[in-house]
Amino acid sequence: MKLNHINLTSVDVRGDRAMFETYFGLRCSVEKGKALAVMHDEHGMLLVLNDFAKKRGDFAYPEDSDVHHIGFIQDNREEVDAVNAQLRADGWDVPEPRDYHGAWTFYFKAKGGYFVEVATETRLGPRDSTAA
């Protein structure tokens, strides 16, 4: 089975499109005004950003939670640090990376209201991987 796409509701589709292009190498395939952007990576995975207010209704992402997030894996700590530094230099409010659950990682809030994680691969031990 292969993951085909992820659909994220965003309150700032254009801002999020620019972020994914600038920092994560995604490219836009389709854009429909301020309401929809279909993006892709080099492996064919699609990321759909939408601001369909009628469909969203009263739904709102949690204000201070990283529960709803999308993650980008990096090969090493230096790459995580480099993405962090680039975001920070461009004015994003990002915390310093830290060791968390066996990964070097940080989370930041996208303009669309959800969170983005940038991390190295999580290295869980045998005991950690079976824990609930």
Describe the structure.
By secondary structure, this protein is of the alpha/beta class. The protein has 4 helices and 8 strands. It has 2 domains: 1-53, 2,3-Dihydroxybiphenyl 1,2-Dioxygenase, domain 1, CATH 3.10.180.10; 66-132, Roll (2,3-Dihydroxybiphenyl 1,2-Dioxygenase, domain 1). The protein has a 4-stranded mixed sheet, covered by helices on one side. A 4-stranded mixed sheet has the order 5-8-7-6. The chain is globular, with a radius of gyration of 16 Å. The two termini are 25 Å apart. The model is unreliable at 62-66 and 127-132 (pLDDT under 50).
Strand content: 25-35%
Q: Write down the domain tally.
A: 2
Mean pLDDT: 83
Task: Using the CA coordinates, give the radius of gyration.
Answer: 16 Å
Helix content: 25-40%
The neighbouring-strand order within the major sheet is 1-4-3-2
How would you classify the quaternary structure?
single chain
Per CATH, the superfamily of the largest domain is: 2,3-Dihydroxybiphenyl 1,2-Dioxygenase, domain 1
Query: Helices and strands: which structural class?
Result: alpha/beta
Question: Between the first and last Cα atoms, what is the distance in angstroms?
Answer: 25 Å
Order of helices and strands: EHEEEHEHEEEH
Question: Quick recap of the structure?
Answer:
It is built from 4 helices and 8 strands; from the N terminus they run βαβββαβαβββα. By secondary structure, it is an alpha/beta fold.
Topology:
Layout: E1 5-9, H1 13-24, E2 27-32, E3 36-40, E4 46-50, H2 53-56, E5 69-74, H3 77-89, E6 98-100, E7 103-109, E8 115-120, H4 126-130
Parallel strand pairs: 1-4, 5-8
Antiparallel strand pairs: 2-3, 3-4, 6-7, 7-8
